[in-house]
Write a structure and sequence with these properties.
homodimer, 218 residues, alpha/beta, seven-stranded mixed sheet, Redox-sensing transcriptional repressor Rex (chains A, B), DNA-binding (chains A, B), cytoplasm (chains A, B)
């Protein structure tokens, strides 16, 4: 990848745009399966009910240009979007806390199709340490800093109990982790150069339950 | 629950508030473990770096009042928040698509601590149909409407391939599902009285990768 391209691709893209781009990607993949070779933002717009002008604006962040009256070439658009979203470039991660959710994520091989490979996990439970789950080794938490030397990792997946969420985060950052994917319902604090992505399934459940109750009562 | 309380709890609470409330809950749980009996919004504010006035505003949706100079009683605040967020009231759900992510969610018993119980799953793969996973039965997808009669379910968890995401959603809605928890990267369309909660792990990955690259280049 040329460094100009690298620069273009590493612009700080607005989060709403980054969240919509995977919708366009999955939609365009479907159109490809249906035999389409070109797609316009108007076509995507009809399928997923988002303004065509919004779609064109979102796609302007991506290094692709459409042709007048023909639109984007489907194969190119898929390749460019996957690359732009980071799904083609494998990112290695450690997972912290092999409980119910942590174990589930270790078993979810689907993440690797989207650029995330969990290469090792950490826990303190004697019955887990030294074993593997879906082929992924589980080490004792106090081996973390040593393992940072062995593996080329900069992402940490946080699935520990809330009581130790901050402490484990601090230790991750000390060890050189640059991005924390936080699945706990705890709001962790990090230095400003560290990326935090919060994915609280519980917060999403709360929103869904509230909307459901609201619809039932109204 | 009195109907007045029911009404109050089923107000359409702003989504950002609903997403922040679980942070307060986990924080207050920690304070309880440390032996605290009362907590003020200023205290929570210091811990999680959100404006105290925002916290007080968010908590005003919840049926609790603090006492001047003392704050909220910790035990009551936890109980009221858990109830308000729907975590104490078990919601039954069906899961559609026992692939890698679907299987992982069936194994994640943690969801039940937050009010979601997946009572059955559906797939078409002969090697899955008729088996159980973590004690949860897997039925053939064409048995869904019949099973809607047997189980008291109104939530569907969607973890199918994108090619059939819309079709399975349509069938869910036809069968009487009122809320769809969509884990696919596909933007599904539903009638306006149906709740959709999108939780795309892949979109979150895309945001994290972009921010990480941005920090590395800058």
């Amino acid at each position: 990848m040329s460094s100009t391209l690298q620069k273009k691709e590493t612009m700080k893209v607005p989060e709403p745009t980054l969240r919509r781009l995977p919708w366009y990607l999955s939609n365009v993949k479907l159109l490809k399966q249906k035999g389409e070779r070109f797609v316009s933002s108007t076509q995507i717009s009809k399928e997923i009910n988002i303004d065509a002008s919004q779609i064109a604006k979102d796609l302007s962040y991506v290094n692709i240009s459409g042709r007048t009256r023909v639109g984007y070439e489907v194969d190119t658009l898929i390749a460019v979007l996957e690359d732009f979203l980071g799904f083609t470039n494998m990112h290695k991660a450690f997972l912290f806390g092999v409980g119910s959710l942590g174990g589930a994520l270790l078993r979810d091989s689907g993440l690797s199709h989207f650029g995330l490979e969990i290469v090792a996990a950490f826990d303190v439970k004697p019955e887990l340490v030294g074993t593997t789950l879906s082929g992924i080794p589980i080490y004792h938490s106090n081996e973390f800093k040593q393992k940072m030397q062995e593996y080329d990792v900069n992402i940490g997946v946080l699935t520990v109990p809330i009581e130790i969420a901050q402490q484990i985060t601090d230790s991750m950052v000390e060890g050189g982790i640059k991005a924390v994917w936080n699945f706990t319902p705890f709001r962790i604090r990090v230095p400003e150069n560290i990326v935090v992505q919060n994915t609280s399934l519980y917060a999403h459940l709360a929103v869904m339950f509230n909307r459901l109750n609201f619809n039932e009562i109204k």
